[in-house]
Write a structure and sequence with these properties.
heterotrimer; A mainly alpha; B alpha/beta; C mainly alpha; A: mainly alpha; 78% helix; C: mainly alpha; 6 helices; elongated; disordered N terminus; disordered C terminus; binds sodium ion; cell membrane (chain A)
Chain lengths: 431, 327, 218
Amino acid sequence: MIPVALALLLVLVGLSIPVGVALGLLGLGLDGMYSMLPLYGAIGELTWSSSTEFLLVAVPLFVLLGEVLLRAGFAEGMYRAMALWLSWLPGGLMHANIGACTLFAATSGSSVATSATVGTVSIPQIAKYRYNEPLFLGSIAAGGTLGILIPPSINLVIYGVLTNTSVPKLYLAGILPGLVLAALFMLTIALACTLRPAWGGEPVRASWGERWASLLDLVPPMGVFLLVVGSIYAGVATPTEAAALGVAGAVGLAWQRGRLRLEMLREAVEGTMKATAMIMLIVAGSTFLNFVLASTGLTQAITDFIRGLGLPPAWMLLAVVLFYLVLGCFMETLSMMITTIPIVAPVMVALGFDPIWFGIIVILLVELALITPPVGLNLFVVQSVRKGGTMGAVIVGVLPFVLTMLAMIGVLAAFPQLALWLPAVFATSGG
Amino acid sequence: QELPRTTLKVVGSVSTLPPYKDHELPFWTRKVPELSGGRVTAEIRGFNEMGMKGPELLRLMSSGVVEFGTAPLAYFAGDNPINEAIDLAGLAPDVKKAREVTDLFSPVYEKLYGEGSRVKLLGISTYPAQVFFCNAPVRGLADIRGKKVRTSSRTQAEFVEALGGSSVTLAFAEVVPALQNKVVDCAISGSMSGYSAKWYEVSTHLFTLPVNWNQQMHAVGQKSWEKLDPQVRAFLQKNITVMVNEIWAAAEQQTREGIDCNTGAASCPHPVKGRMVLVTPSEADRALLRKVMTEAVLPKWAARCSADCVQSFNATIGRNLGLVAAK
Amino acid sequence: MNIPTPLLEPLPAEARHGTSLLDAALAWAGRLSRIAVWAAGALTLASVLLITVDVLLRKIAGRGIGGSDELAGYVFAISTSWAFAFATLQRAHVRVDVLYHRLPTRVAAAVDWLCLVAFAIFFAYLARFGFDVVRQSFAQDSRSNSALGMHLWIPQLLWFLGIAWMCIVTGLLLLRAGSALVHGDVASVQRWAGVRSAKEEAVEEASAGERIVQGERK
Ligand code: NA
Ligand code: NA
């Protein structure tokens, strides 16, 4: 059954059938071939459930936030400032992409929203400064994945709930690896652009006066950023509510600067709805497929296989990494976590791995899944924000970052303290 | 006499919480094959692992998409308020009463599901007592006034509102960050569920007055049930009843264990202990609980349930507890 | 309300093989879908406002309105389902086009049509069983299990209608692209069901960019 499922999916996706539909049809097909129960009857209930999922409501809100900032002209200013400051580095604005993603990750619990927002703002700059398009797009897709490693993070919360691991400790554990990964991404960009200077775009000549003056353009977006982060950590709002506050703040800011127009809002809304429909179609298809896989016992069979390997711990870790690497190519991440974590995590903990540390490893693997083709939600979001050109460019551009992420998993395996140090510090200080 | 070879598909309750891990999972994956000499085997997954939210389970069982299913009755309160009848906030102050109330009302549910939804009820078990986890000093029930409390059902929400608090709905996953950042002051959940989810790390006061119980139904789609060999049916019904009895017996002990472990009592059998302040209910708290239940929770529920429903309640639970719900 | 330029987009000229009626229907479907998306956006902004007020009240008065999160969930479901048709007409659903771009144009056109068939099958199932969700909620008068006690069939019906609308639009697209395919009109298949080309995008983006710049100068 596993080879049939994979072959079917490859055919469907290879035919360029939209991924959400392909996942849904695969579910229907597997149901018809392998299930004694009429599983297709659940498609309505499951889609309604996933469509009202409060944890996902933040996604369109963050996309809308980015669209409003862009269409009110704030994003342009922020980016110009970043260009003035950063473009002497090999890779110029691509470092700004990673930096913006890291900042945005601290406000958003979702990788998709992070990529969408930063992408909406930055993609128009590719042509302007003649960057290497694939690498630039790759930096946004990869940078966006930081959204779930740096707290707040929907996926860390889900891992915590599935494994009964402390969410506050997971949040603390995610911070350092998140920053290290961001640094490694920048290193990757700098390396690539040192080897191929043409990829790094046109440097922007700037005087120090211009640079300092440009900082003023950073104020409005930073204000919105502080509003979102501040409201979460001051205990005023949940992460989802904070997203709504951010939209309200952005709209208010646009109004205050006299840039709020019906036409502008309409365009922002159209862009947001297109991206949301695209994402939610994938979530719907994937939720149903996951239901079929679980009902027919396929996920159980795969995870039982992993559990039954009985390898020594280090090899087991390698097996798990490979397992998620392969699975991540074909499954949407939320479904993937919900189906496999309850079985895999206890096995790893029983082998002596720290559950907090393993949580960060899992998040890194989930981040990887977000950018590996053929089913990689961040790739799709970047492609959809970009509106044009072939998918292939995004896939090629993200490859160096895939390697970086694999290296990061190695680093974390070699130095578990990277994740465990902060939680330990706060535990002993009584926090 | 050997049972015919049978493979069953079960959708269990929330896979991360004690009733599933300690009872359902071992029952279906170990006990059933063992007791049947390997003739009856089952695959089980929690409904949360299947991407479901719970309320759709009854519908999916009746349409034959799901064979066996377990879910809290509160999830079906929206379909029909009668599903709240045995679990109204303040109705059963201890586990013995909760069991009594449940047994009294089971025949009503059996009939209801059998007729309307084409689902066979196999038994009703429970979670440990639902208590308050607060990240603010609380000395008794009266202190809920002015607090923001995460509730997970309509009856809990009405209970909190009647006490002068404000009820907030949050996904289970959002509770920990919300308690930590004080987006909410308190959250209501099973004493052991809250321990499993490590709520003790982000809250300071555990107020152990049992608000309600969150009973859950174990059921099977009528069509799937009838397809089974009569011997298998008898075998399953008998053993599910045994499991349900075990869960009830464990509920009291787990309520105790949850309280001990959240507050770091020496009697906690688990290695990790919380340091929450234990706040035990006084007589005044129990009196207030009863008062809020009879004056606010029960009338509100009766108003949204049908005349038949209220009458069944009065004839069974009402008679036992000396309560009359007015329609 | 002044109508923006995309609404006045002229109907495609190639009404050669008796497809003018279909073209007209699709043009109307496009307008309706766009208006639906604006309405969805208005609803989303309304839920933003509601959440903001709720959060502020909770902070200032210690007591929110309550239920804003639940309503936001319904708005999310409804606006998503109504956006499906718009996204499909805009060809915004991302397709992995690695092989696609290596196909001869006629084969690619056939694949485009096949994609519409896939959409049709998936959304037919979704509509069929999505309708069951509404029907059962209505029959039992199901309410949400929260203080709000929302009659679930109301948001579910609005959600279902979005899916039904998507089915209608997919049907129209199937007919239009199908007839074009039969007549060897590859350009029309591409226009209605193809993967968006960079050139098309560049034109649209440029016009959108111009509008932003003009807006700033005003
Ligand atoms: Na984040
Ligand atoms: Na992937």
